[in-house]
Amino acid sequence: MKIYSPAEIRDRILRFPKKELIQLPTPFTKMANLSGELGGPEIYIKRDDLTGLAFGGNKSRKLEYIIQDALAKKADTIVTWASLQSNWCMQTAAAARKFGLKPILVLFKSYDLPPGFDGNLLLDFILEADIRIKEAEKGKTVSAEYAERMIQEVVNEVKKSGHTPYVAPLGGSIPGGDMELPLGAIGYVNACAEMFEQAARLGIVVDAIIHSSGSGGTQAGLACGAKALKKDCRVIGISVSDEKEAFGADVLAIAQQTEKALGLDLDMRKEDILVFDEYIQDGYGIVNKDVAKALRLVFMTEGIVLDPVYTGKAMVGLIDLIRKGYFTKKNTVVFFHTGGTPALFPNRDKLVEFLR
Ligand SMILES: Cc1ncc(COP(=O)(O)O)c(C=O)c1O
User: In whole angstroms, what is the distance from residue 195 CA to residue 217 CA?
Assistant: First the structure.
């Protein structure tokens, strides 16, 4: 196991071609008011909600590599899937359009939202994405097998019409479809190196990174990056949908593939993947009072907008872990803001109910 410099990591990442979609580095700043309010560790924020593609978010870092891959494979259509209000799908559609690819989105309706075009679905519509809505079990993400069957039907149809599809896996995380390498996670190793460089410039030693974890690529990339760049920096994934055992194994598998793809000597293991699943509460995408209150707290103290499905739940996790004494006052914790703010609006009823 070896510790690398950010320059060494960057060198390895440069071997992977990408299309420029976003503005990097994203800002890295202290959340002085929130840190004071919570009375625990120093909290910094990495603003990946400000990547500059559509409304920003973690998916745009991943898509720089994935769009490049799709174009290299001569695709003219990109096919992907996720939940109805998916940030991933909207960002994929935006990136695809920018590079002349047609986006086809299979969207699973796994929680009740007011009908009509709102949030990400409105953005998908404006982008003229080919939207296919399917019913799914409430509060759950659909099984990969079911989604793959639906995707296969779309792929057959696209091929029959003489076009070339590129199937991008859920969240750009677990290699699959036409993405053979963990390209999304590689984007997040880069994000980690970028953040450590910013921290070093400010003279900060980062003890922990905390973020929202859904399909695993962000966590896998951050976990590899943190282990490569520093001894003892915990990466804590707050799961929004899956239980920690099974999900942790998925994240580890992506992390090990990332380590291999980058040729790093990290020996990624189970203990490097910290997943907390207690903040899923009522299920994926279901807003609760804690999330609504966390959103209000961060907006009122820092002027920063979180989303109710991902970053809001991660913030609930951070607040709770601070209250439980998981961090010391001397620790420095970085909250990765992974975007997702368009999902605020379709969730307005629940937010108003809990905050009124
Ligand atoms: C806003 C936001 N944050 C975090 C995540 C989780 O990232 P990952 O899927 O890489 O685990 C997602 C995934 O959809 C997201 O949209």
Answer: 17
